[in-house]
Specification:
Oligomer: single chain
Distance between the termini: 47 Å
Bound molecules: S-adenosyl-L-homocysteine
Number of helices: 10
Largest sheet: 8 strands, mixed
CATH architecture of the largest domain: 3-Layer(aba) Sandwich
CATH superfamily of the largest domain: Vaccinia Virus protein VP39
Radius of gyration: 24 Å
Helix content: 10-25%
Length: 476
Amino acid sequence: MDTGMEYKKNDILTVTIEDIGNDGEGIGKVDGYTLFVKDAVIGDTVRCKIMKAKKNYAYGKLEEILVPSGIRVTPLCKFHRQCGGCQIQAMDYEAQLSFKQKKVKNNLMRIGGFQEAFLEEVMEPIVGMENAYHYRNKAQFPVGTDKEGKLITGFYAGRTHDIIANTDCVLGVEENKEILETILRHMEKHHVPAYDEKTGTGLVRHVLIRKGFASGEIMVCLVVNSEGKRFPAQDELIEALVKISGMTSVSVNINTARTNVIMGDEVYTLWGKDKISDTIHVREGEDFSLTNRGIVFHISPLSFYQVNPVQTEKLYSLALDYVGLTGTETVWDLYCGIGTISLFLAGAAKKVYGVEAIPQAIEDARENAAYNGIKNAEFYVGKVEEVLPELYSKEGIRADVIVVDPPRKGCDGECLETMLKMRPERIVYVSCDSATLARDLRVLCDGGYEVRRVRAVDQFGGSVHVEVACCLSRMK
Ligand code: SAH
């Protein structure tokens, strides 16, 4: 569309925000010219400065909120605009939920080709969080220095590696602050240098903190740029850390590689246990308020573990409900990680098979199965798109139900193709990216399946991310 208007960099415009993009940015129009304004909320009238101008649209920087939107709230975190973690903390939580519901529906329409009327029939209301703050059980804090050379820790500013000093992220557990301040004080006192990415020198790269919400157990892992298995004046540091209630494990992780990867492969426990434990319960009832059987997980600093255990219980209980087991079924859990879903399913299925690419995760899965006395779960290490076709062609494996929980990029084509050949009664797709979900659902539906139920579960309040569970059944 040619608007006739020409705008350029540094122009100041007043715009009313009418929509929100998939990354949480506000969208408004001036004379038919579209403006994308980060940190502006639907309903705001704002003054913005054009940072980058194209023919029909531009990216603007929020300069001033002239008339605040009715759904705008004051975020708890004063760094929410700089930090890369939360994109929509300034939106009322109910509005965040409706944004996420709409985002899932739009992706299913636009990418999946599903009709709106059909989606309105099969989509259930999004499952929200009771408390949209302090929900994360894990955080990895980079350690560095500020302009004056003072030791700091906090979070990376959006799309950069500049550290914003903040020991008290509102998404994390309250113990983080005391733990981080104890470590910084210790480093200052003993002149322990922070790692410097640019030169590859210095010692402390990151601090990983994880808490078992059910057990109350806390783990601290110091990621260091050294082959040494000790930490400077570690006895004194440990003495200070163990005073913090719940402290269960203190370790170092060795990472001398000059990469962005946070953790190295080796972990040495300095004090306490090697792992913390946590319990995830199957939940029942309309609003998942009934607590049923629990599965205990033992988690090391390197293990993958869901970061929002409260919502994970709801998401996986929903998936279990969608799977609809009677006790006679053979179920495959693809992209199974440490087997959280597999172990959930095992209690109600005849047999569960899990497939996962990371060997360490499968080790955890097997250990956790044994620990919980689960004998009907078996795990395979390897890429789903390699393991599944091979087992299908060589052993003719079959499934009554297949569950998939892939990473953001979704399922591999080979994986989808083999799933279709296996002809399970039902497929339950758990997704952390509704765009790739929509793409994959199209393939499954063209291959003879029908979407029965879809429900989004918010795991990440304040951010634009949302999880979705979807149940498909084979058409007769
Ligand atoms: N359901 C799991 C989490 C799944 S996250 C849990 O709750 O623990 C997605 C998982 O897929 C990750 O563990 C990742 O390592 C694994 N993965 C990614 N690509 C894969 C592939 N091509 N084949 C097998 N596993 C893969």
